[in-house]
Amino acid sequence: MAGDPAVVVERFLDHLAGERGLARNSVLAYRRDLRRYLEHLSLRGVRSLADVDESEVAEFAATLREGAGEHPPLAASSVARMLVSVRSLHRFAAREGEVTSDVSRPVRPPTPPRRLPRALTVDQVVAVLRAASTSAAGGPGGDPAEGSRQLRAVALLELLYGTGARISEAVGLDVDDLDLDAASVRLLGKGGRARVVPLGRYAGEALAAYLVRARPVLASRRASPAVFLSRRGTRLSRQSAWTVLRTAAVAAGVEGVSPHVLRHSFATHLLDGGADVRVVQELLGHASVSTTQIYTLVTVDRLREVYATSHPRALGTSRPAQG
């Protein structure tokens, strides 16, 4: 049958894998989403995509939000993802001539609520960094390799918090990207966009100590341009960098720490200190200032909290008027 939904879906998935070169996991995600859509159309007795109109797609979106049968209601983010898959299918069907027009185009995915980024307090960050630093201090006569890895931990964590670097940017650093004399580092961000970020004193000193006392030990087995090296002398992986941070956070007794939380903390603390949002945008490597502005919401919430606990009229107490 022309426009058979199941047949068109298979052709669409082949197009994603073969012509657009999507990764296997991405294609599987499309398949899962569209299987739910095919189930919906079957229950409605729809046998051809040519019989689907805008109201049918909107009805599908409604069932996702409200739940139906054995399917519980979905969050706005999940509904949005499924509708992206459905709209891509209908756009493909229209382009291939299976249907006369793309009826899904007017149906807009719901906008998921913006989640405020979680940031640590300054004291929490200092506790994590101090835990790594205390470990790195070690004791006399220790294992040189272990001491090198501990110095690497301090340098890595000071860099992450001191520059707001993404974990991929940190482990992707080469020695030539560092300019300790100018106290700066060149980070290669998303889309291949490079930016130069200042290095604070703590990060600069930690990197200098690591480069002089630790990196040569780790690099003894093979040559590598990478700043952060594994015990085998290869570039440190993202997973290993995560482990470094997790170990320090556990030692400090601070929960909910991740490389991205350190990045959020970097941005939030800058704004709390009076930095301009566009400066923070440049430091983070955001293409649009709107991405950075979500951090201003965090600081506004913090201002409200301080106000609510500090201002006499907010507390409900005030001095009596003087007569």
What do you see in this structure?
The protein is mostly helical and 323 residues long. The chain folds into 2 domains: 5-96, Tyrosine recombinase, N-terminal domain (DNA polymerase, domain 1, Orthogonal Bundle), CATH 1.10.150; 122-310, hpI Integrase, Chain A (Orthogonal Bundle). The chain is 58% helix and 4% strand. The protein has a 3-stranded antiparallel β-sheet, with no helix packed on it. α2 packs across α4 (76-95). The longest helix is centred in the first third of the chain and has 20 residues, at 24-43.
Topology at a glance:
Elements lengths: L4 H14 L5 H20 L10 H13 L9 H20 L26 H16 L6 H20 L3 H5 L6 E2 L4 E5 L5 E5 L2 H18 L19 H15 L6 H14 L4 H8 L4 H4 L1 H17 L1 H4 L8
Antiparallel strand pairs: 1-2, 2-3
Helix pairs in contact: 1-2, 2-4, 3-4, 5-6, 5-9, 6-8, 6-10, 10-13
